[in-house]
Write a structure and sequence with these properties.
Among the domains are: 19-200, Sandwich (Immunoglobulin-like), CATH 2.60.40; 458-549, Immunoglobulin-like; 550-644; 734-869, Peptidase M1, alanyl aminopeptidase, C-terminal domain (Zincin-like fold). It is 40% helix and 21% strand. A hairpin with a 2-residue loop joins strand 7 (77-80) and strand 8 (83-86). Helix 5 (389-422) packs across helix 6 (429-440) and helix 9 (563-579) crosses helix 13. The structure holds tryptophan (TRP) and zinc ion.
């Protein structure tokens, strides 16, 4: 038996580089089956240099051709499948020397979508985190920052467009139908920010003037037939550029900024310097084919990648353990941008609720499971597995807490100091904290624990009201469960926005800083028993343990002036009732009714308030999950809500129509979301009566939000007309891959209908559909991940058939694309939380995958950690 332990990388083992690079010249002759890469690198001693040290370069899946040093053929080297080690350097490596390497890679065989690959006949690269080593031998680490000049050559007929980072220096015709383009990036950068794109693409462009008066060229490159779907991405880019100038004083530093869309991509998008590469899903949109949610996602991903130009590119990460330095900060920036784009206070609150809902549905389970890690991990086997909701979304919450503690102005001062100190450097999370602390003269040493400790802190609330003295005593106790490798935790520095709600409305909001294990506060002049509103706007990413009476929760649900906590009170009541297998009582129905009828509330807020907590979030509140029971009790609760308020839903459906030409603004999309919830609730209440209305909406819709919502309502409720509309949808959009992804995903995520569950059979049929492609991540996810990760009631079958499908799928995907396979592998992370027979079946499934001898390091790490005790 093989006893090799998987290799781990540790944060504390960081050493600065032995050598570093100055100028890098790349000459790349693009050929799908044999791309020749010539690199010329100026090498200098690095911070860990010692005379005579060899130069160790990494490379993967490369064919080595030749090596020269200072112009001379060099024979003192060793090759392994993963490295090129060069010995006998001139003058023991003490002075600058030139390394020239020629190597070959095979883009059309590259299904991992890391390094150089082909998609729909065009060339693309993805280098973060460690993809550059699949293009050429290199010091592929973020603390080696070099200047790049890149010459691309290709057959002009096949690749009329040749793009790379920075500014275009020249273009030339070459013999035999070839041509070339030379690009130069004026800013030093780590290899993970390198990019090239080549092929048959077309662009829309616009020129804008930035705050300093400089003119900038903005381009969005897509396949020619998609040119009519780029307007929204361009608008989002322009808005992002202006927002970053206004909010943080950060300007675009290049003459040209390009976005390119590609349909084969592992993640959302990538912030390569001046040449962002995007999954088509986050670029292409028009009303007929993209939903309001798609429009919002595009806006936020375009902003996210653009914001990386400063937070990530100008100041980058010392090593990959510091990933949250750029990701947490950049998510925080894109969340703030999107909130500002909503155009109103209530719009900001809607955005905040959506962000927190995502955090709690996805990150809380991660933080409680076998892959739990601090936002700055201490150990990893495969860095690709650490592009997680913890690093991104919890990382953003940690950045948000600085702003909560320091105020917006204080936060801005910290950001200014961070750039003043570190522009052009590769730094750590500690450097960011130090800039925030120093700029504000605040001691943030305890705050540091948010970077080093995993797990979601719990805060227990105890309250005593003393009417005789008009005092209210609040005691908070914090704790944090053990996580892998971290048994005992030190107390966190937790900022809690708090207000006592009274009929007189006479208590101000305060910021409580919980730093001790237990801490008490006394509030004076409290002349009536208040209702506590704590962790307002979700000021800290914690779990509250607060046994509040249902009466108080109902009060909060009707009067809390903090929209987040108002929503939260409603969620907590619903959660308690669902977990207690109860139906909504008359009082709760009345509260829902008044909220729905309140003319002062945004439709988007109403939609959020009437949407029940997700099943996966409910799981986390249990000590032993019966997924079928939770599904049924949640569904029964929903049906009751639908029936009791049927008249209101019918009225809301009419009142929230958006007649006239389609508009994508926050007001209109809020109305559509409430209207479509109403439609879904009507079908929940009585599919026979309301199905024709849904079919009609499906047929007459002039936008994807309404058409898809109607289709989904029909499919989910097993209503008459569903099959016909599904057929129509496929033929109507057969040529639009992103819409066909929706068609697949909807069918794979259909929960059981009236106790009947045929979804797994359906999913297996879909996998055989001529339009299904396992190699394309969007398509694979639309069938497989949609079923295994977004359809809990169908996935968790007592006979284990869902898990068997998961095993097959992980093993089929892994040799093609380990990153996509490893994400899927995580669907069983929380197996220990489940009751029998589920738990046993899940464990067996994990063991089946683990038994495969040829697993990628990506999947190996995920299943290894899931099974570790
Ligand atoms: N840095 C990218 C972002 O957050 C993430 C990313 C894109 C990525 N593609 C990737 C990470 C491939 C790992 C592998 O915007
Ligand atoms: Zn990012």
């Amino acid at each position: 038996m093989k006893t090799d332990l998987p290799q781990s990388f540790r944060r504390l083992e960081y050493r600065p580089p032995v050598y570093t690079f100055d100028q890098v010249d790349l000459d790349i002759a693009l050929d799908p089956s044999r791309t020749i890469v010539k690199s010329r690198i100026e090498v200098l001693p690095g911070k860990s240099f010692e005379p005579g040290a060899p130069l160790v370069l990494v490379g993967q899946e490369l064919e080595f051709v030749s090596l020269r040093i200072n112009g001379q053929a060099h024979r003192h080297f060793e090759l392994t499948p993963e490295s090129l080690t060069i010995h006998s350097l001139p003058n023991e490596g003490k002075d600058k020397f030139i390394v020239e390497i020629i190597s070959i890679c095979v883009p059309n065989k590259n299904t991992s979508l890391m390094g150089l690959y082909v998609s729909n006949g065009n060339f693309f690269t993805q280098c973060e985190a460690e993809g550059f080593r699949k293009i050429t031998y290199f010091l592929d680490r973020p603390d080696v920052m070099a200047r790049y000049r890149v010459t691309l050559q290709a057959r002009e007929e096949e690749c009329p467009v040749l793009l790379s980072n920075g500014n275009l220096l020249k273009q030339e015709k070459l013999p035999n139908g070839w041509h070339s383009a030379t690009w130069e990036d004026p800013f030093p950068k780590p290899s993970y920010l390198f990019a090239l794109v080549a092929g048959k693409l077309a662009c829309v462009e616009e020129t804008i003037t930035t705050s300093s008066g400089a003119k900038k060229l903005l381009q969005i490159w897509v396949e020619p037939h998609d040119l009519n779907k780029t307007r929204h991405a361009m608008d989002s880019l322009i808005a992002s550029i202006h927002w970053d100038e206004k909010r943080f004083g950060l300007e675009l530093d290049l003459e040209r900024f390009m976005i390119v869309a590609v349909s084969d991509f592992n993640m959302g998008a990538m912030e390569n310097k001046g040449l962002n590469i995007f999954n088509t899903k986050f670029v292409l949109a028009q009303a007929e084919t993209a939903t309001d949610a798609d429009f919002a996602n595009i806006e936020s991903v375009v902003a996210h990648e653009y914001f990386h130009n400063w937070t990530g590119n100008r100041v980058t990460c010392q090593d990959w353990f510091q990933l949250s330095l750029k990701e947490g900060l950049t998510v925080f920036r894109d969340q703030e941008f999107s909130a500002d784009q909503m155009g109103s206070e209530s719009g900001r609150a809607v955005k905040r609720i959506e962000d927190v809902r995502l955090l709690r549905q996805l990150q809380f389970p991660e933080d409680a499971g076998p892959m739990a890690h601090p936002i700055r991990p201490d150990e990893y086997q495969e860095i690709n597995n650490f592009y997680t909701v913890t690093v991104y979304e919890k990382g953003s919450e940690v950045v948000r807490m600085y702003q909560t503690l320091l105020g917006r102005e204080g936060f801005r001062k910290g950001m200014d100091l961070y750039f003043q100190r570190h522009d052009g450097q590769a730094v750590t999370c500690d450097d960011f904290l130090a800039a925030m602390a120093d700029a504000n003269n605040k001691d943030l040493s305890q705050f540091q624990r948010w970077y080093s400790q995993a797990g979601t802190p719990r805060v227990k609330v105890e309250e005593v009201y003393d009417p005789a003295n008009g005092q209210y005593h609040l005691t908070l106790t914090q704790s944090c469960a053990s996580t892998p490798g971290q048994k005992d935790k030190e107390p966190f520095h937790i900022p809690l926005k708090t207000r006592l709600l009274t009929a007189k409305n006479d208590q101000p909001e305060q910021l409580l800083e919980l730093t001790q294990p237990t801490q008490s506060w006394t509030f004076q002049n409290v002349t009536e028993r208040p209702v506590l509103s704590i962790n307002r706007n979700f000021s800290a990413p914690i779990q509250l343990e607060f046994e509040q009476s249902e009466a108080d929760l109902l009060t909060q649900f009707s009067v809390d002036d903090d929209p987040f906590n108002r929503w939260e009170a409603g969620q907590r009541i619903a959660m308690q009732m669902i977990l207690g297998d109860r139906l909504p009582d008359a009082q709760l129905i009345n509260s829902y009714r008044s909220l729905l009828l309140d003319p002062n509330l945004d439709p988007a807020f109403k939609e959020l308030a009437l949407t029940l907590p997700a099943e996966t979030y409910l799981y986390e509140q249990c000590s032993s999950v019966d997924p079928q029971k939770i599904f049924m009790s949640r569904r029964a609760f929903r049906k009751e809500l639908a029936k009791q308020l049927q008249l209101e839903w019918a009225a809301l459906y009419q009142q929230n129509q958006t007649p006239g030409p389609f508009k994508s603004d926050a007001q209109s999309s809020g109305k559509r979301s409430l209207k479509n919830l109403a439609l879904s609730m009507l079908l929940e209440a009585d599919p026979k009566i309301w199905a024709p209305m849904a079919v009609n909406q499906y047929q007459v819709a002039d936008n994807m939000t309404d058409r898809y919502a109607a289709l989904a309502a029909l499919v989910i409720h097993g209503a008459k007309g569903a099959e016909e509309c599904l057929r129509d949808f496929f033929s109507r959009f057969a040529n639009d891959a992103l819409v066909i992804d929706k068609w697949f995903a909807l069918q794979s995520s259909r929960p059981p209908v009236d106790g009947k569950d045929s979804t797994l059979l359906e999913v297996k049929r879909l996998r055989e559909h001529p339009a299904f492609k396992l190699n394309n991540p969007n398509r694979a996810r639309s069938v497989i991940h949609a079923f295994c990760a977004n359809n809990p009631a169908s996935f968790h079958q007592p006979d284990g058939s869902g898990y068997a499908f998961w095993v097959e799928s992980v093993l089929a995907l892994d040799p093609i694309n380990p990153q996509v396979a490893a994400r899927l592998a995580r669907a069983l992370d929380r197996w220990r939380l489940f009751a029998q027979p589920y738990q046993g079946q899940m464990k067996a499934a994990l063991e089946q995958v683990a038994a495969c001898q040829t697993l990628s390091p990506d999947v190996r790490e995920v299943v290894g950690k899931a099974l570790a005790d």
